[in-house]
Amino acid sequence: MQTRDLTDSFGRVVKDLRISITDRCNFRCLYCMPAEGMKWVPREEVLTFEEIERITRICVENYDFTGIRLTGGEPTVRAQLPLLVERLAKITSPVTGKTLDIAMTTNGATLASMAFDLKKAGLNRINISCDSLQRDRFAKITRRDQLDKVLTGINAAKEAGFAPIKINVVVMRGVNDDEILDFIEFGRANKVTPRFIEFMPLDADDDWSSDKVVASDEIISTIGSRYAIKSIANNSDPASRYAFADQKGEFGVIPTVTKPFCGSCDRIRLTAEGQLRTCLFSIDEFDLRSAMRSGSTDNDIKAIIERAVGLKWAGHQIGNVNFHRPSRSMSQIGG
Ligand code: SAM
Ligand code: SF4
Fold first, then answer.
1. Ligand approaching nearest to the C-alpha of 106
2. Is ligand 2 within 6 A of the CB of residue 56?
3. Tell me: the pLDDT tens digits for 216-267?
């Protein structure tokens, strides 16, 4: 079977599919969800494993996608998750014969019970989110007192053989920006890679403001004031990567707000209820679930994907007067 590049009107080739497999979550992080009153997508509207597998297969067989990331909401709250991973791990590129690089982003709280099963099922890479190493502060940020479970989850992922493990840290001014060096020390001691993410205007509480963003440059200079560091190549990863001169690991920064990487964006996103989005900040969505449930052929689905990608915009406008916040918050899109 012949594949072709899925190219947008700015010449960017789409290669990476981010799949939200649930909008539900066992945490209520203040930069993502409201404390109470979150309205969940009714279960019958959430894509089934068969539907997720079908869209993934169409992307791989027609456009040679090389990677997918499972996210949410919290992906580990979806029942039978290892089964889904096992199914996705069987999809191969008709060109290279290779299987997909399957990654997952998780809050880690229930990872201990399934890390081995996920590894066995074919999950390749894992990012675990943790925004504070202080128990009280962690509880305030996530609105759950479960730092110990997340740390256990990180250990379980190591024991299951995931490497490297990345630790996603959303840095917020006046909330946890005094812990940057603590995370660096944690990363070096535990052989995991911290990735500092700029706070984005995707919080359900609509509390974001630019003064709460800690710029990646500031994060790098804080770390550089303590350690000798050097920039390293980052392939298509949105993170700018840095290594320690003493070779004890690395860290990354994700400068979505202050230095957007839209020009090299190679991803599209699928929400839990099957809406295709070409950007985290998209206003438009393309309804793949209705298409699949009304008997569309693979060619019909391809046409929708190609139309969506053809309309992908040059980049988000955070900080500009034309910026419109998407109506969905992060957990409803899939980060
Ligand atoms: N529940 C999983 C987790 O927390 O890792 C996966 C979904 S979560 C939406 C994916 C990533 O988005 C997490 O690393 C989280 O910290 C990040 N995130 C959520 N809201 C954000 C925001 N407003 N700005 C920046 N990052 C955010
Ligand atoms: Fe849940 Fe992840 Fe959002 Fe936190 S960031 S509320 S863990 S989906």
1. 1
2. no
3. 999 999 999 999 999 998 766 778 999 999 999 999 999 989 988 788 888 9
